[in-house]
Structures are given as C-alpha cells and as structure tokens.
Amino acid sequence: MSGLPTGRPSLLILYKQLLRSCETYPSKNRMGIYQAIREEWKENKDLTHKDKLDKQIAIAYKGLSQLRQFDEMAMSGGRPASSNWSVTMEQNPMPKPDDYDSRKTRRT
C-alpha cells in the first residue's frame, strides 16, 4: 500500500472527492451514504498506525472508484445523453472492519 498518498493535502482531496461523488450517486440513501463517509472520516482522523491508515485509505479509494462508476459523465464518455454505459460491481466491495461488531455495540 505504499503507493497510496497519505499526506494531509492528499487525504483532504480524497475526502472532498468522495463527498462530491456521493452527491451524484443515484440512490435514495444518498444522504445516508454522505453522512456515513463524514462519520468514518471523523472516527479515523487521529489514526496513526501505518497499517490501519493504509487500509482505511485503500478502502476510501475503492469506495471512490465505485461511486464514480455511477457518474453520468464518466459512464457516457463525456456525452450525458449517450446510453452506452455499463457498471461492474464486486461481490463484496466494502468488507466490514475487523472491529465492526464491537463498534456497533458501542453506538447503541
């Protein structure tokens, strides 16, 4: 994962790209996804362990890639009126974090 940008400016750009891509995501749960992204970033803002940080950054880039699959301009090759596009999804695109169950019980 050493190829991922981890500097503060790069991460801020990634965060903004995620939020902007989420704004055009075609889903009834768009605002829920938007809020989830914001919450994840707040929870991980002080993350210092390199392996965990790299893992979270990789997940963020993967999520951005998947959100952008639904971007109208990207799908249509720059011609929004075009209907020639396709979307390919992974079987388990966003695996749950290792501590998901303990985090879930803390919130309730």
UniProtKB/TrEMBL annotation:
<feature type="region of interest" description="Disordered">
    <location>
        <begin position="75"/>
        <end position="108"/>
    </location>
</feature>
<protein>
    <recommendedName>
        <fullName>Complex 1 LYR protein domain-containing protein</fullName>
    </recommendedName>
</protein>
<feature type="compositionally biased region" description="Polar residues">
    <location>
        <begin position="81"/>
        <end position="91"/>
    </location>
</feature>
<dbReference type="InterPro" id="IPR008011">
    <property type="entry name" value="Complex1_LYR_dom"/>
</dbReference>
<feature type="domain" description="Complex 1 LYR protein">
    <location>
        <begin position="12"/>
        <end position="65"/>
    </location>
</feature>
<feature type="compositionally biased region" description="Basic and acidic residues">
    <location>
        <begin position="96"/>
        <end position="108"/>
    </location>
</feature>
<dbReference type="Pfam" id="PF05347">
    <property type="entry name" value="Complex1_LYR"/>
</dbReference>
